[in-house]
Every structure is written in C-alpha cells, then in structure tokens.
Design brief:
The chain is 52% helix and 8% strand. The protein is of the alpha/beta class. The chain has a domain of 178 residues. The strands form two sheets. The chain has a five-stranded mixed beta sheet.
C-alpha cells in the first residue's frame, strides 16, 4: 500500500481503500432490486481489517488523513497482534463540551470498536490522533493482557503513588485510584506500574511507526508527527497524574503540569537507546504558557466550527416502488 501511495498519491489509494469496504450485503440487495435496511447505511472506508465506519470520504481532506491512520495501525506490530485479524472499526462521533472525551475503545470479542470524536480527527494533526489511539489501545485492553497486572492493581488500588517531579513537595504529591474517574488511567500514569509500561511501549512503537513513514517518504509524513505523538503522550500522563484523572483540575495547576511533563519526558527519553531514531525528536520542555496554550487550543477546537464535517451522512433508505393493481 505504501508503495502505491508513493507512486500515485493518497487520493488514488483512498479511492481503492474506500471501494474495498463497500458493504457486500447492500450491493447484493441493490442488484436484486431490494431496498436496503432502514437503519443507517454507510459506505465504510477499509484497509485490511481496519476500518472507518462512517468517514465522509467524498473529498481528499479527510480521506488522506484516514489513509495514513489506517496504514499506521496496520504497521503497528503490537496492535496487529492484539487485534489478531479481527475487524477494528473506528466510528466518528459528534462530541462537544458535554462530552469532550476524544476517544474510547471497546473489545467486543468478534470486533474491536473505537469511537473517535470528529473534532479531534478533523482538527488535530496525525501525531496527536496516533497518540490518542495509543492511549486507547495501550492503557486499556492491551495492558489488560499483561501477565500479573490484575494482582498488581488489586494490591495498589487505593494506595497513594508518587507523582513524578512533585516528590519533593511537602507533603509529596501523590495520585490514587481513590476518587479517580478511571483507575486504569491512574495505573497508566504511574511509572512503576505495569499498565504505564504497556502504554509507554505502545506509544513508543507508534512513534517509531510514524518515523518509518517519514523515512519511506509517505505523503504528508513529517518528523513533527513523531514529536506531536510524544507531546500527546507526555501531556496525557502529566494531566492524569496532577489532576488525579480530573483534567479540569489539572488545568488549574499549569506550573505543576509543566514540571511533571518534563519529568516524564526525562524518564522516557533516558530509557531509550542512544541510537534510537526518535530520541532527538522529543518535544522541548513544557512551560506554564505551553500548558495553558494546550488547554486553550483544546477548548477552542471543541467549541468553534465543530460541525462533524468528517462524518458521512447515511444513505436514505430506498422505498420500493409501489405497484398499482
């Protein structure tokens, strides 16, 4: 696929990808002169076992982004191993301030289902989208398969764990599953816990996959994508840790978020081999203004021009022609 993209460009590949996902049953129904089912009828956008269920792929803008994202998921060996050939379906959803969560994931057994906020897909660059999907896979279902994680998390539930960078506070700053919205997030942000290590590894593998897209000169790929993904990961764990999984609370402590972000950066970067190609691509240290800017950007992108343009409108059900006696 990447060879085809390099030769013909994203638009040509997108056309092939989109056609490969047209619903078989709908085609059969139309050929037989039957009306399709009355429920929403979408033309999905598919590459191998990865699929956008309801992407508006009429124009190149979102189509090209979808091509890169599906190719990236296909390139990620750990995600591929977890999915195991099952359909992995991304459904775009309109989300606003009442539910600004960028994404969520659910393993249904036969399929893996991801809901992705349309504002996030439309307005954030590839590195941030890949970073968000790294969170969904790495901190949730993939981490759940790590040996011994259940026993570890049972032992540390309700236990205060140090927040990196704020250990020197008096008293030392801690995070805990007590009062957290999702205990998986707390374990995913605590450097000594298995869930954090699983999340970190998925994110770093995604960063490497993005870097390989740059090396392969994939259309639209830049080293900034790698930096953006790492920034997404670091801000994610920093705000979880500072706010005890309350992002609004973390937003009221920009100085602490910056300190924790920079500490996580040191921990992750120092853990890489000296010859790691992504090591030079880590973002600069974050300051108070950078943290405030990130929160302001998120709020602006949720509340301005958030119309779900990337979401495909379902086809109108066909009404069978009436037959008169």
């Amino acid at each position: 696929m990447l060879h085809l993209q390099n030769a013909a460009g994203n638009a040509a590949v997108a056309s092939v990808v989109a056609r490969s996902g047209l619903p078989v049953q709908r085609a059969k129904d139309e050929a037989a002169g039957k009306a399709p089912a009355a429920e929403a009828d979408y033309a999905p956008f598919t590459f191998k076992n990865f699929q956008f269920v309801n992407l508006n792929h009429a124009g190149e803008k979102y189509r090209d982004k979808a091509v890169r994202l599906l190719a990236l998921l296909d390139k990620h060996a750990s995600i591929q191993k977890y999915v195991g050939g099952r359909p992995c379906r991304i459904t775009l959803q309109m989300r606003g301030m009442e539910n600004p969560t960028p994404a969520d994931i659910s393993d249904k057994g036969a399929t893996v289902e991801i809901n992705l906020a349309s504002y996030y897909f439309e307005k954030y660059d590839m590195g941030y989208i890949a970073g968000m999907l790294s969170h969904e896979f790495g901190i949730h279902p993939m981490a759940a398969r790590v040996a011994g994680i259940g026993d570890e998390e049972e032992a540390f539930t309700g236990f205060p764990m140090l927040v990196p960078g704020l250990e020197g506070k008096n008293p030392p700053r801690t995070m805990s599953t007590e009062g957290a919205k999702e205990k998986e997030h707390i374990f995913g942000a605590s450097p000594d816990r298995k869930r954090h290590q699983a999340y970190r590894d998925v994110a770093l593998e995604m960063a490497t996959a993005l870097y390989e897209q740059v090396k392969e000169q994939e259309e639209g790929a830049t080293e900034k994508d790698v930096t953006d993904l790492l920034d997404c990961f670091l801000m994610d764990v920093a705000t979880i840790a500072v706010g005890n999984d309350d992002r609004k609370a973390a937003g009221k402590e920009p100085s602490n978020v910056a300190t924790v972000y920079n500490r996580y950066k040191t921990l992750v970067r120092d853990g890489l081999a000296e010859n790691s190609p992504i090591k030079p691509l880590f973002p600069a240290n974050k300051g108070v203004l950078g943290v405030l800017g990130d929160f302001a950007t998120l709020a602006y992108r949720i509340t301005n021009g958030n119309k779900g343009d990337s979401i495909q409108q379902p086809a109108e059900p066909k009404v069978p022609a009436s037959t008169s006696a």
